[in-house]
Structure formats: structure tokens, C-alpha cells
Write a structure and sequence with these properties.
By secondary structure, the protein is an alpha/beta fold. A seven-stranded mixed beta sheet has the order 3-2-1-4-5-6-7, covered by helices on one side. Strands 8-9 form a two-stranded antiparallel sheet. Helices cover 34% and strands 24% of the residues. The chain starts with 6 loop residues before the first strand and ends in a 5-residue tail after the last helix. It catalyses: N(1)-(5-phospho-beta-D-ribosyl)glycinamide + (6R)-10-formyltetrahydrofolate = N(2)-formyl-N(1)-(5-phospho-beta-D-ribosyl)glycinamide + (6S)-5,6,7,8-tetrahydrofolate + H(+).
Length: 218
């Protein structure tokens, strides 16, 4: 039986790309169903670009400041992705809001990780939001990207306890450990067919390991 080709993945970053690093490391495993073929950043000074290059991945910047508007920047980004034969896009700290046209063009083929248990605490400063709300559980979510910010169908989530004495920094430190576990597991699910988009929901195929990977909770 022929081996299924690995899904060609691009990662978009704006900074150091710590989640990018976790995806790259996971993709080194022979049986991992995705191959990281491209890293792009909207910032030429993004530290993650150098890391990607150091492990042999094509990586470069498309400076959003060089474009007159959002649509033309998105068009340049789209052209790079298509030229590299990218099949799936992972956002990893990419701090740009896309035009609706770009999101529609990559609908069902673009996922993001957000530092909260969506639908709670969309947007920025999620750890401060969680502390202000007094929740007992916080965490992170991998979801498909849709035009509405932080609102797409959920692929996987991981939870952490909120402890007495937590501040945003201590809570963020606990959450990011789970982000680095969750994102590679969620990408494997999507790239390997263990998770599929069905309307506005994600269906997890009941094959044991894949289902467990999507339900990380600590």
C-alpha cells in the first residue's frame, strides 16, 4: 500500500515563534502526517525566521509596511503560499488580521492557536481577562480561522488550573506549556484526517489515539 504523502504546511509568525518551534520539532518524527515547508513573517526582525532557516526550512519576511493596504499584503502572502504548494496554514503568533477574501480563500485549510478556552476571552490580554473573570480553569484552543476573530470551529483544547496568587505572567507560563503540546497534536489530527470540518463543527474520528490527543486537559 502506498504511503499517504505528508500534508504541506506553512507557519505564519510575527515574533519568536515558540509554537512554531514546537510544530517543527513534532514534524521531525517519521510518522508525523505534516511537513513544514515554509515559514513566513510580516516582520523582517522576527526571531523565528532565523530558527526556521537553521533547521533547513525556507523562511522569509513579507513586510506588511511595504504594502498600501491589507488586501495587497494578503495577496502577496497568498502568492507565496501557493507557490510553495502549501495545503494547510498554521498561525503561530501572527499578529495581523486578514481580509475576508484571504480567509475565504483558505477556508478549512487554516488553523490558529489562541491562549484561552474559547469561546471565552477572545482578543488580546487573555490571561488578565481570565483572572478578572475569576475562572478556575483557563487554557488554550486550536481552531479553524474564520472571518470573525477567534470564532472558528474548535479542533482541540487544553486546560490548566488558575491558582491562588496567579498573575498574568504566571498563568501565561503555565498555559504556554500546554500550547506547545496541544498545537502539534491538533495539527497531526487535522493533517492526518483524524479531525474533519463538518459545517461549523469539527468531528474527531474515534480512533483512540487521535481522539485522546484532541482532549488534553491538565
Amino acid at each position: 500500500m502506498a504511503t499517504k504523502p505528508k500534508t504541506r504546511v506553512a507557519i505564519l509568525i510575527s515574533g519568536r515563534g515558540s509554537n512554531m518551534v514546537s510544530l517543527i520539532e513534532a514534524a521531525k518524527a517519521p510518522g508525523y502526517p505534516a511537513e513544514i515547508v515554509l515559514v513566513l513573517s510580516n516582520r523582517p526582525d522576527a526571531a523565528g525566521l532565523a530558527h526556521a532557516r537553521s533547521v533547513g526550512i525556507t523562511a522569509h519576511a513579507i513586510d506588511h509596511r511595504a504594502f498600501p493596504d491589507r488586501a495587497t499584503f494578503d495577496a502577496a502572502l497568498d502568492a507565496e503560499l501557493r507557490a510553495a504548494g502549501v495545503e494547510l496554514v498554521c498561525l503561530a503568533g501572527f499578529m495581523r488580521v486578514f481580509s475576508a477574501g484571504f480567509v475565504e480563500a483558505w477556508a478549512g485549510r487554516m488553523i490558529n492557536i489562541h491562549p484561552s478556552l474559547l469561546p471565552l476571552f477572545k482578543g488580546t490580554h487573555t490571561h488578565a481577562q481570565a483572572l478578572a473573570a475569576g475562572v478556575r480553569l483557563h487554557g488554550c484552543t486550536v481552531h479553524y480561522v474564520v472571518p470573525e476573530l477567534d470564532a472558528g470551529p474548535i479542533v482541540a483544547q487544553a486546560a490548566v488550573p488558575v491558582r491562588a496568587g496567579d498573575d498574568p505572567d504566571s498563568l501565561a507560563a503555565r498555559v504556554i506549556v500546554q500550547e506547545h503540546r496541544l498545537y502539534p497534536a491538533a495539527l497531526a489530527l487535522v493533517a492526518g484526517g483524524g479531525a474533519r470540518l463538518q459545517g461549523d463543527r469539527v468531528v474527531i474520528e474515534d480512533d483512540g489515539a487521535a481522539a485522546d490527543a484532541a482532549l488534553l486537559s491538565l
